[in-house]
From TrEMBL, chains A, B, C, D:
Protein's organism: Methylocystis parvus
InterPro entries documented for this protein: AhpC/TSA, Thioredoxin-like_sf, Thioredoxin_domain, Thioredoxin_ResA/DsbE_sf
Name used for this protein in its record: Redoxin domain-containing protein
Pfam families per the UniProt record, alphabetical: AhpC-TSA
Occurrences of domain Thioredoxin (ranges): 1-151
Family matches, as PANTHER family: PROTEIN DIPZ, THIOL:DISULFIDE INTERCHANGE PROTEIN DSBE
GO molecular function per UniProt: antioxidant activity; oxidoreductase activity
Length: 154, 154, 154, 154
């Protein structure tokens, strides 16, 4: 399986320092790509990521948010995102996907060939992409994949 | 009962012309005050207002949204609101509550002495305030009040 | 509009004495017909009737349940219904629709020409049927009809 | 960890032949103990078991229902259970927990020292009890445990 492309992030929230996937090698990563004005993200995907962080807080899972804005760019700036994070009480690290000059699709979103938001990418301890899902993820199915990946020998 | 204070709106969405409560006299008005980054509005109050507009579309009920921003002002500008309205497919008229110089609370919100968002105000055919509720409104209770107000002789 | 047919009930629960529609003339009646093993009743209709009783407890609305068994008769006897009422903490009066000899459809269900369960019948203060709905009723729509009927002069 | 006690079942539904845990050794077992008139089972636990069977249908998970009646015995006989299974379209095997003479608690429930219904017991490929939960189980947490147990070498 292919190695997960590295993140390209212009600004981090809820993180003391920039985060790279390279530095998370050996752990399982849940990458939740969203937009703050995407209804399916706000009602389902983003609260699910928050619940995953809480549920697996004592495990090797790292939940990382990616604000992947590919539409309404002027409406979803970092100042708006910051208020969103505050109001929705999100506590997992969230990176702003780096804008691409001349392309509405930001850099990380393009690297992962995401089809839209929400997208959930699960990365194994070996750094390979093990799940890549667009749209609503079922809680039980998501839990099963995470449980399986955590069970692999680091 | 007191007459409902007039709206102070700096910009309308989903309306061909500015709307006044005076012009709606004789009809029942549901005024839904919200903020686009208020979780309780997005998950409950605003979809409820949209459902009310749909349910009572052939009656004398007018559903009016009021974007009453009293916090995170830079995060909830009209350009962001416009994207929000588009993404959430809101079709009822929405006015931006007029900013007040030197006061974070906008003008209409102050006139109604609203405690926060979401706030639901129901105005009878005679122009008086008949219900003023802060927080989550129960669908059945709301329907009952609207049904009662619509039953009054114009 | 036609007068609502009288109830035919073989046994009452949550009632000190048998209830007739005739004795409720002047009040609004919500008649909730259900079966204890009907999934749509258990998940939606019956809790809705319970909420309606609570919401309108200080009004002229009378909520009446009707256990209208038309299938699996041996599985839904009064002894099972009694446990169901206890476990689901139902507090509104519930009558067992009278069995009809040679007909799986019980008497009241036949009189009202109900198509199945849940069925919600709303009866005005004048005793006429004002709403007759099969399946899931929207809370707001139901509230609106009840509010309208309560607003009529007794 | 202790070996899971064997099931004591007086009658099976949705099964061609009686099922024993011994015969399932090497597979993961989800044992869902419920009562057909237990509101928390009907609204949450039992549909969750049905979803688990569907989600993991191509894996080594076996979902087994246990109708563990410890109250209202006359109200929840096999004839009522059969109609319940039909109406709720349950397709996983369901055993009636064997009645115990002189004890309202049936045999299997007693062996597992279950506190009530719903109870979810997860048994590993080695036949030991790995999870024993009373009440509402979170979908994501349940999925994670199942994923972990399935990942163990048979």
């Amino acid at each position: 399986m292919p190695l997960a492309p590295e993140l390209a992030v212009s600004r981090w929230f809820n993180a003391a320092a920039p985060i790279t996937l390279a530095s998370l090698r050996g752990r399982v990563v849940m990458l939740h790509a969203f937009q703050m004005l995407c209804p399916g993200c706000v009602s389902h995907g983003t609260p699910q990521a928050q619940r995953a962080q809480q549920l697996f807080r004592n495990t090797d899972l790292a939940v990382i948010g990616l604000h992947a804005v590919f539409e309404h760019h002027a409406a979803m700036t970092p100042v708006s995102l910051e208020a969103f994070i505050h109001e929705y009480r999100l506590t997992f690290p969230i990176g702003v996907d780096e804008a691409s000059s001349g392309d509405p699709i930001p850099v990380t979103m393009r690297r992962y060939e995401m089809r839209g938001t929400p997208t959930c990418v699960l990365i194994g301890r070996d750094g390979t992409v093990r799940h890549h899902g667009f749209g609503q993820e079922d809680d039980m199915a998501l839990g099963a994949i995470i449980g399986t990946l955590l069970a692999e020998t680091p």
